[in-house]
Amino acid sequence: MEKVIELKTTLLPFDGAKKLVNANNSESDLLYKEYYDLGDGKQMCTLVFERYFFRTGGRGSLTIILENVSGPNKVKCIPSGSAEGILNIDWGASKDFVRWVENALSAYTLEEPQR
């Protein structure tokens, strides 16, 4: 899986972050959140979630960056730590984690995610 998945949305970054935090389920823990209001309607948020995956026997994290500094509202998803072994296979765990974001924001997504 490509490491960074990018979505374009109709939501401002703060609103998108609020949707993701409220859409969080018991499978994921919100480890960190940070919000920046840069003025002139420009916003940037960083969220870090962690989840245990039975299929890999370990924890994976998902860093989500929401911003509209460099153009339209973007959501960047960076999964990590969900792979195991020498071959670095994650058995689809990172795809599931990113899919959770895609589903939570599907009503506000402008186009197919860039992979």
> Cα-atom Rg, whole angstroms?
14 Å
| Strands side by side in the biggest sheet | 1-5-4-3-2
Cα end-to-end separation: 8 Å
Q: Tell me the major beta sheet.
A: 5 strands, antiparallel
> Would you report the number of β strands?
5
Contiguous low-pLDDT stretches (5 residues minimum) are none
Number of helices: 2
Question: How much strand content do the residues show?
Answer: 35-45%
Structural class: alpha+beta
Principal-axes shape call: globular
What is the arithmetic mean of pLDDT? 82
Keywords for this structure?
5 strands, 115 residues, 39% strand
Q: Mind explaining what this structure looks like?
A:
The protein is an alpha+beta fold. It has helices at residues 13-23, 93-104, and strands at 5-8, 28-39, 42-53, 58-67, 74-80. Helices cover 20% and strands 39% of the residues. A hairpin with a 4-residue loop joins strand 3 and strand 4 (58-67). The chain starts with a strand and ends in an 11-residue tail after the last helix. The model has no long low-confidence stretch (mean pLDDT 82). Strands 1-5-4-3-2 form a five-stranded antiparallel beta sheet.
SSE blueprint and pairings:
Blueprint: E1 5-8, H1 13-23, E2 28-39, E3 42-53, E4 58-67, E5 74-80, H2 93-104
Antiparallel strand pairs: 1-5, 2-3, 3-4, 4-5
Sum this structure up briefly.
With 115 residues, the protein is α+β, with helices and mostly antiparallel strands.
